[in-house]
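Appendix B, example 12.
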Amino acid sequence: MRITRHPDGRVLSTPLHLAGIGLQFFGAGMAISAIVDLIVDAEDFGPLAISAVVLASLGTIARTNTAVPGRVSARSAFAAVGWTWVICAVAGALPFWLAGLLTGNETFETWDGALFEAVSGFSATGSSVITDFDSIGAGLMFWRQMSQWFGGMGIVVLAVAVLPLLGVGGMELMTSEAPGPTSDRLVPRVSETARRLWMIYLAFTVLVTLSLLALGLSLFDAVTHAFTTVSTGGFSPNALSIGEYDSTAVEAVVSFWMIVCGINFALHWSALAGRDPRVIFRDAGVRFYLFVLVAGTLFVATVLIIDGLAVGTALRDAVFNVASLGTSTGFGNLRPEGGANFVLWPPAAQLALFYLMFTGAMVGSTSGGLKLLRIRIASQVVIRQLQKVRQPRSVPLVKLGGSPIPEDIVSRVIGFVLLYLGISALGTLIMSWLGIGLIEAVSGAVQSMGNMGPGLGEIGPAEGFAGVPRPARAVMMALMIIGRLEIFAILLMFSAMRLSLRRHGQSDTGAPLEPLIRHRRNT
């Protein structure tokens, strides 16, 4: 394969350059985690320090010896995003695997267990193979939580924010990887848009930390839960997750911030820049999002009250779990005495939560799932078809906020929804074939695609994924990455590979990007 070089001799490769940046960030994160470990208990300092040096070195080599082409093609953008995620997921597993190898941690004695934890973290899913949380040192746990923080906003957006040299082609990278199916510019410069997104993300992280500190959590617990709240990831350093504190106040604060982080971050910036919070509530998408959460909460609470649970407890558990699963965070409030385990709730309440696993929150948020915007459009298409049955000559339009949506965008949304459901169904079929029960297979596929965390049945909030067969965990990892990258990035990533092989090493022509950008912005 022919290698294209920059005039200064560096290899022109967007994927390798971006992966190098990602590895440098990961190395820095692991170094911070190693310091935390040294201060707290020094259980996993060795694995973290070795990983930090290895990844920082590899990242520096990759970054300094490669360059981004002056024009990034559609194929290069998607390949860069896809391969960066794969490389960073494997890299993120290194300290877990070394902990199993060097310290004898049984949870991570196999590479696939370490990889599952890393992929779940980096995709902000929250599924875990850890069964003995006391066996994990403070530093390794800190890295586990931080991996979701990196993955929440995306390492690619971070790269664009920090390195303006990626301003050329940077919008394509953000469009391919930024949370949600849109990444509209907040300002003309791409690097400034990414930087502002990260400023909001950092500000929310600090605010969540301070909120939890005010409620009496330790600094370690406050910071680590802030990482996974703003990323809507759901990892917790506690076996019982948020239920460890058995505190209505803690659950209320976490629920509030989960809901906030399920809102489009561009709206947050508009509200902050204009100093007018009403901007958020004037948005039709926000109102629909809050309606779904309120309706889900009232339904689940009603079912629990009819089942005999006290009104206060029913509302408490309904609010928290609807917020957690409706934003694809996946925190649990399973209390020490065994309360709030939704796997034991009546079937109607479980089904309501299962539906929320599909929805996700708003576009442009860190949430996973189908996204409410797509669900609204798909629902209007169904209503339109019913109208056409009644009035065959009518030409009803699909509208959002009073504005009609172009038919090509409607078609793309329907295509995405069908792809999402089809991949989820295929994942369910494969996992059932691998020996998992039907409930576990269905919920496992849905929660993996939606980057959710807990499932139903034997993979509920009290169980975890250590008992899932290793081949089925591999399927879940694939679904996590597909769901996090919004499907099309993965499909076009492999399409780029196929075209590259067919062209036998011909250099990238730098195809026009505007059609792709418009497609990704509007679906």
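The two ends are 35 Å apart (CA to CA). Residues 187 and 518 are 17 Å apart (CA to CA).
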